[in-house]
Amino acid sequence: MKLLQYINDILADRKDLGLLIFRILIGLAFIWHGVPKLLSGPDGWTALGSMMGVLGIHIFPTFFGLLSGLTETFGGLFILLGLFYRPVALFLVGNLMMATSIELASGAPLLQVSRPFEEGVFYLGAVFAGPGRYSLDALLHGKVREDVRITA
After folding, report:
1. Distance CA 119, CA 112 (A)
2. Could you give the CA distance from residue 140 to residue 10 in angstroms, rounded to a whole number?
3. CA dihedral defined by 117, 118, 122, 125, rounded to 10 degrees?
């Protein structure tokens, strides 16, 4: 039990470091997913957006495909940087819940459905946790402690 208490004591003071690591890794993962979608061009965007047809949504497939690629690419970048963190995380929750709905409606196996659902849950938690102290949002809003403030 002392070992668990010791580990807890060490990690409790490093919440912001944990949020930074989370932001960097999940941000990079979403940039990795989003860039190919974004670079696929109008044909790829249309194919991606037309997947919403299983939900009965057949309008503007090119727009919705592009929106998904933009959300994942730039959303991942903004999450990584901790910039506009909560609004971007909410956009990503919406994107991932749409992906979950599409997977469910298309009859995909549960293992395939679980990936976007779990990622959406991560981002929902991120909305509440915030970006942490080591973020551009904290820097821009003056919430960085004086001992870690970047000065020119």
Report:
1. 12
2. 28
3. 70
Residue the block writes with tokens 């979608």: 37
* Token pair for 69: 């690629």
What pLDDT shows up at residue 11? 80
Distance CA(37)–CA(33), nearest Å, equals 7
CB 33: neighbour CB atoms within 10 A?
16
As a whole number of angstroms, the distance between CA 48 and CA 134 comes to 35
State how far the Cα of 63 lies from the Cα of 8, in Å rounded to an integer: 47
What's the confidence (pLDDT) of residue 152?
46
Ranges of the chain whose pLDDT falls below 70: 144-152
Q: Is 49 helix (H, G, I), strand (E, B) or coil?
A: helix
Based on its alpha-carbon atoms, the radius of gyration of the chain, rounded to whole angstroms, reads 18
| H-helix segments, the chain | 2-12, 15-39, 41-50, 61-81, 85-105, 110-129, 136-140
Structure token digits, residue 125? 């938690």
What is the model's pLDDT at position 3? 86
DSSP codes joined into one string, 104-118: HHTT--HHHHHHHHH
pTM (two decimals): 0.85
